[in-house]
UniProtKB/TrEMBL annotation:
Catalysed transformations (reactions): diphosphate + H2O = 2 phosphate + H(+)
Organism: Plectus sambesii
Main location: cytoplasm
Function comment: Phosphatase that hydrolyzes imidodiphosphate, 3-phosphohistidine and 6-phospholysine. Has broad substrate specificity and can also hydrolyze inorganic diphosphate, but with lower efficiency.
Broadest EC class assigned to this enzyme: hydrolase
Protein name as catalogued: Phospholysine phosphohistidine inorganic pyrophosphate phosphatase
């Protein structure tokens, strides 16, 4: 496969749909991925877990992954909320939040009394008509409406089926307000580059593995990375001939990618 035609020193791994499928409670681990992550953690490869997960703080996400059987340090996790908080800080912004209650702690430092932007994550049950309309009313009255989204996915897979993701709701507000979101998270190229820089590697030495052909594979390729599609999570058979994105590799699951990669590195 051409994703192995150049040396690989680092991996960026998507979490949901690659390590586990979310759903009731902690969701369900993809069994072969537990062993695969152990083998990677024991290898010379550097790893960062690059997720658009926006319903948990990093600490809570690391703890949840631990309960599912994955030993992952909080420092190895890249999630959009801390990146968004640092953007708000740099630009002196006061957010109105339309996010999942589980991630609100990441924004505890901000004054929200007179908001000048809206931050939207995967709010799940908080995506009510009332909450969307409040965000709309706030944006439409601003001179320069700014909508910041934590990721921009269309949908994701849960144990009981596909679920609408934040991008679908963001589109509604973009349409109503004639604006474009600032996306913090995948598929934003800067988000991938920050994770690569954190490993002190180059784009050329790094491969992204994910289940979302646009956000993970297409996004990684736009950032100059190789992108490998897994046939787990939200993967759909028709993506094998996707009109926009051709992955650099397609594997059944993370375990197959790890087998191929470690065999190649040992040769
Ligand atoms: Mg995923």
């Amino acid at each position: 496969m051409n994703w192995l035609s150049k040396p690989v020193r680092g991996l960026l791994l998507d979490i949901t749909g690659v390590l586990y499928n979310s759903g009731e409670g902690d969701g369900v681990a993809i069994a072969s991925s537990i062993e695969a992550v152990k083998r990677l953690q024991a290898s010379d490869l550097k790893i960062r877990f690059v997720s658009n997960e926006s319903s948990n703080t990093r600490a809570k996400l690391a703890a949840k992954l631990g309960r599912l059987g994955f030993e992952i340090q909080e420092e190895q996790l890249f999630t959009p909320a801390p990146a968004a908080a640092s953007y708000l800080r740099q630009h002196g912004l006061r957010p109105h939040l339309l996010v999942h209650p589980g991630v609100q702690d990441e924004f505890a430092e901000f004054d929200m009394t007179d908001p000048n932007c809206v931050v939207m994550g995967d709010a799940e049950r908080e995506f009510t008509y009332q909450n969307l309309n409040t965000a709309f009313q706030l944006l439409i009255k601003l001179d320069r409406p700014q909508l910041i989204t934590l990721g921009y996915g269309k949908y994701y897979m849960e144990t009981d089926g596909l679920k609408l993701d934040v991008g679908a709701y963001a589109k509604a507000l973009e349409y109503a307000c004639d604006i474009q979101s600032l996306v913090i998270g995948k598929p934003n190229a800067e988000y991938f580059s920050a994770a690569v820089a954190d490993m002190q590697l180059t784009i050329d030495e790094t491969v992204m593995i994910g289940d979302d052909i646009l956000s993970d594979i297409g996004g990684a390729q736009k950032a100059g990375l190789r992108g490998v599609q897994v046939r787990t999570g939200k993967w759909r058979p028709q993506w094998e001939n996707h009109p926009i994105v051709t992955p650099d590799g397609i594997v059944d699951n993370l375990a197959e990618a790890v087998n191929l990669l470690l065999a190649q590195n040992a040769a």
